[in-house]
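Async update (no meeting this week)

Hi team, since we skipped the sync, here's where things stand on the single-chain job. The sequence we agreed to prioritize is pasted below, unchanged from the tracker. I ran it this morning and attached the output directly underneath so nobody has to dig for it. Comments welcome in thread, and please keep replies under the output.
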Amino acid sequence: MASENAGLTSKDYYFDSYAHFGIHEEMLKDEVRTTSYRDSIMKNKHLFQDKVVLDVGCGTGILSMFAAKAGAKHVIGVDMSNIIDKARLIVEENGLSDRITLLKGKMEEVELPFPSVDIIISEWMGYFLLYESMLDTVLLARDRYLSPNGKIFPDTATMVISTIEDGDYKEDKLSFWDNVYGFKMSAIKDAAMHEPLVDTVESRVVNASQCVFKTIDIMTVTKADLNFSVPFEISIMRDDYVHAFISWFDIEFRACHKPVRFSTGPFAKYTHWKQTVFYTPNTLTVCKGDTIKGTIDCAPNAENPRDLDITIDYQLTGKEESSEDRMVFRMC
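Output:
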């Protein structure tokens, strides 16, 4: 076993993690995710009729089968994971083998049976939208294969930030390490403070306005654009305490006759992406109308590009308190 795993990188383990059906079960059971893709395809058959479609990171082949059912001339699904072996059986079981070709390998290495494609479909989003960096692969496919008048599903993503009051949960997750059966474990607490938490946040604890800090047009964005430093500004909505910043993303299929949208935020129906929480080192005392301004830096980690280095600089200008700080996180 050791010799078989010798030389494997984090990328190899990333692809291997998607070989197990369990992770696909979670995604398929995410009704917001799956029905949004289904509706964007099946309710726009006029866009897919007789078109060549590329499904980047096809997984079980569900999006490829939607496209075939919508009238696509041919669909090519590409995936590096071993789940594609199951996908071939699924496609055959549903009588679509003559219209769907599944290729196992990296997007940059496989050879497509068509020189160009009319539509690219992909469910590339990760936690905090960009974690695991699968968007890079979609952009590679776009630049190499998409026809001049081609379309991408989805084609727009927006990233949002706000703040929350989360004292009880923060106490449970972080202060726990101050006294673990009589022992201090500050080294683990410090590590936990620098790793964003992905979890479901109740809408009632959101206590500031929502600021869109990044909009990504998949048709035009470049890989370099995914390394960014952008400003944000939010306004406190009630007298409260701030224990963390919270972020989520919204997705749009604007190419549709009637655009399809979904949100992964706390005010929308649950998705498996949940929300991303960034705890502040200190609790902030805030009043209605106070302003928090800052910048968010995001870049792929130098050692493992599928991880993210995220820095939040903020300045609170308030009636009760004014403060500023820099928070450095690694999402891994």
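Quick observations from my side:
The chain is about 25% helix and 35% strand.
Confidence is low (pLDDT under 50) at residues 1-15.
Reply here if anything looks off.
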